[in-house]
Amino acid sequence: MPLPGAVVPEPEDLRSRAGVLKAALTLRNHLEADGSMRYCYLLADGTQSPTLRLRPGDLLILSLKNELTEFRGANTKSSHLRFITRVWHQFRSLFRR
Questions:
Q1: For 41-55, what is each residue's pLDDT tens digit?
Q2: Which residue range is the domain that position 89 belongs to?
């Protein structure tokens, strides 16, 4: 996680080729000092939060590895569930016709 005031690089673009984009991402979380939960998608090389670029009709093959961590004293189960539900709805809304 970048320190406050640090320069954060632009996320990597992953683009479809020949109508297909295959991406493998790891989902991790971090508990902030104020009790809020932060989530991040990582590529295998550690690059954070890539931008997925597809054209209408392209096939997206997405593998997500769950590396979410439970934190003592935090209500992580409901927090994780809300996060996963939000992500699912975002993906669904992108692909509605």
A1: 899 998 888 999 999
A2: 13-94
How many domains does the structure of the chain reveal?
Answer: 1
Say if 6 falls within a structural domain.
no
DSSP code of residue 6 = -
Does residue 46 belong to any structural domain of this protein?
yes
CA distances to 17, 37, 67, 92 from 78, rounded to whole Å, are 37, 11, 16, 21
Q: Which residues contact 19 (CB under 8 A, 6 or more apart)?
A: 55, 57, 58, 59
